[in-house]
Amino acid sequence: FAAEKEGRVGFFPHDPNYPVMTSWDIGVDDYTAIWFWQHIHPWVNVIDYFEASGLGADECVRQALPEYTNSEMEKLAQRIEIGRMAPFRYQRHFLPHDIRNREWGAGAKSRVQTLVALGMPLNAINVGVQQGPEERVNASRRLLPIVRFNQSKRVMLGVQRLRRYARRKNEQLGTYGAPLHDENSHGADGFGEFAVNCGIVPAKPKPDNKPVQPIGTVYLPGAPEPEDRTRRKWG
Q1: In this predicted model, what pLDDT tens digit does every residue of 50-72 receive, in sequence order?
Q2: What value does the mean pLDDT take over residues 162-167?
Q3: Collapsing DSSP states into helix, strand and coil, what is residue 169?
Q4: Alpha helices of 98-197 — where are they, by DSSP H?
Q5: Each residue's pLDDT tens digit, 79-105
Q6: Taking CA 225 as the corner, what is the angle to CA 221 and CA 229, rounded to the nearest 5 degrees?
Q7: Across the strands, what pairs with 37?
Q8: Other C-beta atoms within 10 Å of 41: how many?
Q9: Mean pLDDT of all residues in 24-38
Q10: Strands in the chain per DSSP E
């Protein structure tokens, strides 16, 4: 709501002069979510978002990061399909701690090995430490005031995921517990993965330099008017 009110949901497309970072939440049988970011000081722009269900690593990379595809024709065709005019120049990929799991790809390869085999440079992969949902939520709240969202169809789907991210509710007790694991939680977790690990710290607000008024005094605007002695009433 604050982002919309402040004009931070609008036209903030990819700027070829700046590198692109991604953050992921990886699913095999459920959703994989990928956020695309550019740090253009003092702002962090969300320029694209991708999610898919039931896709393997090769399909996710081909569809969301065609820049890593070997065939130049396939690169161009996929970029045209997703409306990406200029290729992204990737700087860093923030991946969750379970990226080391051996369950995403054939031959018992780890997820890291699978992504490297698909063209992602190993030195561009940042494997995050295991964090609880509270840490991701708090980090996201700290980052959100400097985030701007490009108002494209895909990014607005990601924004919808953030809006609908919710906690489990105990109907009998009327209390809330851990985050609800549903189609919205993967996008929210991918957003939080960046917030926790990107190292971008929002600038602190400037202090208010107005002079402090002493207690018990009142400042009125302008000089006091001259006293009209002709209208003074004497007791």
Answers
A1: 999 988 889 999 999 999 999 99
A2: 90
A3: strand
A4: 111-117, 133-143, 153-164, 185-197
A5: 999 999 999 999 999 999 888 775 665
A6: 155
A7: 21, 46
A8: 9
A9: 90
A10: 9-10, 20-25, 31-40, 43-53, 90-95, 125-127, 147-150, 167-170, 175-179
pTM, rounded to two decimals: 0.83
User: Which ranges constitute the DSSP H helices of 65-184?
Assistant: 72-82, 111-117, 133-143, 153-164
Give the type of residue at 89: R
The phi and psi torsions of 5 (rounded to 5 degrees) equal -65, -35
Residues in the chain: 235
Q: Could you tell me which of 42, 76, 60, 62 has the C-alpha nearest to residue 186?
A: 60
Cα–Cα dist 186/180, whole Å: 10
Q: Tell me if 87 sits within 8 A of 54, measured CB to CB.
A: no
